[in-house]
Amino acid sequence: MCKRPGYLVDHIKPLCEGGSDDDTNKQLLCAPCHDAKSAQEAAARSGS
Which residue ranges does the record assign to the HNH domain (predicted)? Predict the structure, then answer.
């Protein structure tokens, strides 16, 4: 986790990939880190 202020709840394994909504599958990420992770996951799903 970086030191930027303001955090979002992120699913470690995305729900659309079979991840659970359980607390063990959640982490806090700052908005830029969350956006970067989400972009990587979307690119992987699209095969890019």
Answer: 2-39
Q: How many C-beta atoms surround the C-beta of residue 29 within 10 A? A: 19
Q: How far apart are CA 7 and CA 29, in angstroms?
A: 5
- Give pTM, 2 decimals: 0.80
Per the CB < 8 A criterion, the answer to whether 35 and 29 are in contact is no
pLDDT for 1 equals: 60
Quick one: pLDDT band at residue 36, thresholds 50, 70, 90?
very high
